[in-house]
Amino acid sequence: MARASAGRSTLSRQLQLLDAFSIDSPFLSLSELSRRSGLPVGTTHALLADLEEQRLVERGADRTYRLGIRLWELACRTPGALGLREIAMPHLQEVHGSIGQHVQLGILSGGDVLFLERLSSRDAVVNATIIGGRLPLHASAAGLVLMADADAATRDEVLAGPLRSLTDATIADAAELRRVLHRVRTQRFAVADGYIHPSARGIAVPVTGAAGETVASVGAVVPNDDAPWIPLVDSLQSAAEHISAALRAAALPQAHPEASPGGRYRALVSSSDESMQYLAGPANRRQPHSPAGATPR
């Protein structure tokens, strides 16, 4: 792999540029990318040219750059986060249809919860969640569920602070956070009244993977009022149990009687049984994908 004179690989510097984009800044100019990445303008320009050629960034008519569609295409091939989203989607839709408010799926990412999906209604309560966006673990119900089951190093890092307050209700004291995490770990759900917005209540439960480990949280954001929230916890726990069962079925050997159909596609796709059987069938032997720009032989 080619390396810069300072010892940094080309790939690491390209990742610096890709990391410069954010939910709040999806379009950036050359000078903005240079400033945000800390790379010289000339280096930034050369790296962007290569990224654009590979469709990892796209340049608009106004000469700003945005992340390219090929990144999404590559991400969709992973059985990790997006495979989880695909398997969870039917159950998220069922909960969303019953409560009519926001329903979301999040995973642990460092000291944050990273949201893979959010289903909403136009007349639902205010919600700060954005797909691909993050919230601090201590400041959301989804984050509390994930943090409660995280490894000790992750918990200790967050507890060491600072614990940023988003509202007056956000947990900002480490001792209080420890007590809340203990309660969440015991009861297997979290309720966060007004942590992010005074009008909103977050509720979340854990989703377990094939080995019984917590891999995600399923949550809802509803009005922060006097309405009973225990029925919502029940609905979310039912959805989480179904998602967990689907994850286990996708991880079983295909010959196992409880395995879901679909062969190697089980961890990537959630579709009808007939579709999954077709994807796994011997008649559907797909040709290897050629990288962009490659010449078939």
- Stated plainly, the CATH topology of the largest domain is called Beta-Lactamase
Mean pLDDT across all residues, rounded? 88
Q: Tell me the strand order in the biggest sheet.
A: 5-4-3-8-7-6
Number of domains: 2
**Major sheet summary line:** 6 strands, antiparallel
CATH class of the largest domain, named Alpha Beta
The CATH architecture of the largest domain would be 2-Layer Sandwich
Share of residues in strands: 15-25%
How many beta strands in the DSSP annotation?
A: 8
Distance between the termini: 25 Å
Radius of gyration: 22 Å
Basic shape: globular
The unreliable regions are 1-5, 293-297
The CATH superfamily of the largest domain bears the name GAF domain
How many alpha or pi helices?
10
- Sketch the topology as an H/E string, one letter per element: HHHEEHHEEEHHHEEEHH
Helix content: 25-40%
Topology record:
Blueprint: H1 10-20, H2 30-37, H3 41-53, E1 57-59, E2 65-67, H4 69-75, H5 81-99, E3 102-109, E4 112-119, E5 134-136, H6 141-148, H7 152-159, H8 174-187, E6 190-193, E7 200-208, E8 214-223, H9 230-251, H10 273-280
Antiparallel strand pairs: 1-2, 3-4, 3-8, 4-5, 6-7, 7-8
Helix pairs in contact: 1-2, 1-3, 2-3, 5-9, 6-8
Protein name: IclR family transcriptional regulator
Keywords: DNA-binding, Transcription, Transcription regulation
InterPro entries: GAF-like_dom_sf, HTH_MetabolicPath_Reg, Tscrpt_reg_IclR_C, Tscrpt_reg_IclR_N, WH-like_DNA-bd_sf, WH_DNA-bd_sf
